[in-house]
Structure formats: C-alpha cells, structure tokens
Amino acid sequence: MKKGLGIILGAFGAVGALGFAASSYFFGANFKREKKVKSSDAFFAKLERLGLGPYLEKMRKGRAFAESLPSEDVYITSRDGLRLHARYYENHPESNRIIVLAHGYKSSGISDFSCAFEMYRDMGFNFLMIDQRAHGESEGKYICFGVKERYDVADWCDYLVERFGDGIEIVLDGMSMGCTTVILAAALPDISKNVCGVIGDCGFTDPYTEIAHVARSDFHLPPFPAVHALWGTCRLRAGFGFRDASTVDAVKHISVPILFVHGEDDDFVPCENSRRNFEACTSEKKRLFTVPGATHGVSFLVDEEGCRRAIAEFMADVDEYIAKKKLA
User: Structure pTM?
Assistant: First the structure.
C-alpha cells in the first residue's frame, strides 16, 4: 500500500513539476518585455504574414506622416517607481484638447495610431502617445494586461493637468490592451476630472477571459489547469491576478461619453468583448461601432469612412458633455 501510494504521489509530483515548468515558460514568453525592438521593416513584414498586405501602403504613409510631426520626450514616475516615457505632440499650441494614446500588447503608439494622426490633428487635438510599462522607452519588466497600466494612464492625465492647467479637455484612446487599460483607468476614483471621453478599440474584458480564449483557440487547452497555473505564476512574479480588474465592471462607473470599436472578424480578441462592455456600460452617451470583415486592430483601415463618422459622432457627445458640465 505504501508503495502504491508512493507511486501515486510521485506521479502527481511529476505532473505538478511539469505544469510549473510549462507555466513558467509561457509566463516568460508572454508577460516579460521583449528584449529586441522590432525594426520598421520587420514590423511591416509581420503584417504581410498576417494577411494585412492590402493596408500596408496606407500604414506606411500614416507612419511617415506621424514621424514628420515635431514632438518631445516626456517622463513621469509610476506609483510603483518606474520611469515611464511618452511623446507629446503639440500640433495646436492654442488648443486645450489632448488625446492620450495607449497602444496594445507588445506594440507601440506609432504602430497602432499613426494612420489616425492626421485625422486627430485636423480635429484640433494635441497628442500624448505613451509607452506602456515594459514597452518602448518605459521601464518595467512585466506586461500587466491593463491591471497596473490603468494607474499609469491616470498619472499621465495628472501630468497633463499639472503642466497645461485645469482648463484642458482629455480624451483617452486605447487599442487592444490599450483599450482595456484606458477603460479601467477611466473608472478609477482618482481619475482626473479633465477626462471627458473614452475611445476603446478591440479590447478584452479582463486578462482571464483573453488568456483562456487564446489557450482554447491556439493551444486547444482548457482553462483549468493550464490558465490557473499561469495565473499563480503571474501572481507570484508580476504581482497581479487575471481577475484583478474587469472592464465589464469598470464601465458601470464611467459617466463620460464612450465609444467602443471592434472588428467583427476579430478572432484574437473576439467582438463579443466590446458587446459585453457596451451592454454593461451605464454612461448616458455610449456608442458601439463594429466593422464587418475587420480582424484585430484594423477597423480604421478596413472602414476608415465609417470610423471617422463614428468618432465625429462621439466627439459631438463629448462637446455636449462638456457644455453640460460647464453649466452645472
């Protein structure tokens, strides 16, 4: 009996050790910052492999336009002591409108937003294009899927108010993980009152939902035990859990106008994430714009006219919100 029990315990121990090793590997591959920054050529080659060839010329033109604009490097210190970097574009010195651009997972602001730079400039915006923690020139070892990044966005808003005064009007705009980040930030009790609108493009509702989806779709693994083992590793090493924050809960605490955008053919972060956010949102001014045929993060490229129209309607909501706020 002792021998049989020893065999069983040994088997469980071996499985546990294998599970720990696997979760440690996946954690290192997916939660730690990339050591090498992709070159522009490598970035476009990757997009070609992903089937985005028809949009590459538009993206190259957008990137060239973005890189032609004057900007300055700015820095803040996060609440947990990281030096965070952003680029500030003062397109209109007389304007009091600033849009904060939060990029997606292992991406950059210039990659995710450059095609919209000209539109936002023509709408009168100055830009703050942030490097999320563990990306670009910002410090940080671990990517936290919006859980810790939300506080960074709130601190960037405080930086803008301190620098430019209490009369500024801030719109938060996020792509993919950046979308999740800005929605979570907008719901924080200490978010700046100068935030007057949120645009969220193709974000996930919470880390658990997204990681479980990828485990099922890409690796054919059930959430238990694979995702739960990874969750434990993440808690120990990066200091956060996969259910520490949810946009479905956050949108119940957002009163400013909000626009959700999502590609209907997104199989990386399914469109259902934005539909759930829209249904749960309690803002009086909420909009959902979905794009047939668009995969992850390319709604603006697939239907630029529709996205421009949706953003213009959203900005009308923002103007109305600001006008009412001034009368209150």
Answer: 0.92
